[in-house]
Design a protein that fits this description.
By secondary structure, the protein is an alpha+beta fold. Helices cover 35% and strands 16% of the residues. The strands form 3 sheets. Strands 4, 5, 6, 7, 8 and 10 form a 6-stranded mixed β-sheet that branches. A 4-stranded antiparallel β-sheet has the order 2-1-3-9.
Length: 281
């Protein structure tokens, strides 16, 4: 039986509450193993470069975060936990956004500009935790980073105060100035052709298998349903969404699976919209 480290016990407790976790060496994740170096494996299914990676090690930084207790307690993760300095988590996977305030000036700005919420002390400043998901962004203001989608944050404890809903003022921090060039909107029902002909995702077996796997993932979820639905939508869009191969019928299959697990139509629409926003679509 593998000996439990205190850090891993914290990770298992968080995972049981639906918070996807990963080990940190110092303040950064462990590097990819030799099989995944340079993203040769294709990446995790919920990364931009989606692929079939099934690496059992805690590779791929934030995308390795998991709530699966068997993975967290597995021999493949054991060496990382023994060397880990702390636990990290994927905020968006838990439905959260972290406003990382790195100095006293940033903290003073937050007190003057943001609604009160759960607060945690860091080495140099504070983390303000909000309920809601948004794109991550660094240096949105002097000493202020946003950590949510496709990012990780160190677990610093439960903090103090109730978690408030994500306010518009925080969402606006990550909004970039629009380009003067107008981009035509992409529709999911019209295939887009590249320089090498019709997208390979048009192969029915490839696309249908991807949708079937996504439906299965949602259907088999036993906890953290909101997070599972969002991550599944993100994975589908990252693989199939940029070339117009998805149709309304495919999206309907995903929404039907999510609603069968108790998600409302509005939650499905919000998760789909948030996933597209995260991928810049």
């Amino acid at each position: 039986m593998t000996q439990q480290t205190p850090i891993r016990r914290v990770a298992l407790t968080l995972a049981a509450d639906g918070v996807p976790v990963l080990p940190l060496r110092g303040k950064v994740p462990f590097g990819n193993c030799r099989y995944c170096a340079g993203n040769a494996c294709g990446g995790r299914p919920n990364m931009k470069n989606a692929g079939p990676c099934q690496c059992p090690a805690p590779c791929h930084a934030w995308a390795a975060a998991t709530t699966d207790p068997d993975t967290i307690a597995s021999p493949a993760w054991a060496a990382a936990w023994r060397r880990a300095a702390s636990v990290a988590y994927h905020p968006a996977g838990a439905g959260l956004t972290v406003v990382d305030l790195d100095n006293p000036d940033a903290i003073a700005w937050a007190h003057a500009s943001l609604p009160a919420t759960r607060t945690l002390r860091t080495t140099r400043g504070e983390h303000w935790i909000y309920q809601g998901v948004m794109p991550s962004a660094n240096a949105v203001r002097p000493g202020v980073d946003i950590k949510s989608l496709m990012a990780y944050a160190r677990w610093l404890g439960n903090g103090t105060g109730a978690i408030a809903p994500l306010p518009a003022v925080v969402r606006s921090l990550a909004v970039k100035e629009p380009s003067h060039a107008r981009r035509a909107p992409q529709t999911l029902t019209v295939p887009l052709r590249g320089r090498e002909g019709e997208c390979r995702h048009r192969a029915p077996a490839y696309l249908d298998r991807g949708i079937a796997m996504a439906v299965q993932r949602i259907t088999e979820a036993r906890s953290a349903i909101h997070a599972t639905v969002y991550r599944t939508f993100l994975a589908v869009l990252s693989t199939h969404g940029r070339c117009g191969c998805l149709t309304d019928a495919h999206v309907a299959r995903l929404f039907t699976a999510a609603q069968a697990k108790g998600e409302s139509p509005r939650h499905c629409t919000d998760a789909w919209t948030n996933a597209r926003t995260a991928l810049g679509m």
